[in-house]
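Re: the 157-residue chain
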Amino acid sequence: MEKIPMTIGGHAAMQEDVKRRKSVARPAIVKAIAEARAHGDLSENAEYHAAKEEQGMNESTIQMLESNLALAEVIDVTALSGDRVIFGATVELVDEDTEEEVTYQIVGEAEADVKSGKISITSPIARALINKKVEDSAEVNTPGGGKTYEILNISFD
C-alpha cells in the first residue's frame, strides 16, 4: 500500500476523531439501539433502523480513519524549509484578476478542509503551485474557469 502524506496536526486530529467515535459515539449508538429494541417489533421500528444505520456509518468511518492512520507518513512541517512550494507549505496568494488574497496550507487528502485553509496536495490549486517560488504566477483550471494567482509568501509553520 502507498503511504499517505499527513501533517502532525492532521494525524493528531484524526487520532482524536477515532478516539471520540469509539469512546463517545459508539456507546451512545449502542444505548440508542437498546432503547429502540425495548419499544417492541423491530420490523416497523424506525428508531431502531436509524440507530443501526448510524452504527454502520460510525463503524465504517472508524475503519477508514484507522486505515488512513496506518498508512500515514507523518511529516513535521516545521522541520521543512525552502523557497519553493512543497507539501506542508503555507502559501499566501493573490488572485491576479480580483486582487483578493487567500492563504492555503498544502496537506494530505485525508486532512484537507478548504474552509479552514487546508487544501489537498492533489487539488488543482496545489498541483499548480508545487515547485513555484514567491512572485511566480500559477494558472489554475477550476470548474468556474481559469484563475491566475501570484505567490506572495511561502512559509512552513
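Residues 29 and 55 are 6 Å apart (CA to CA).
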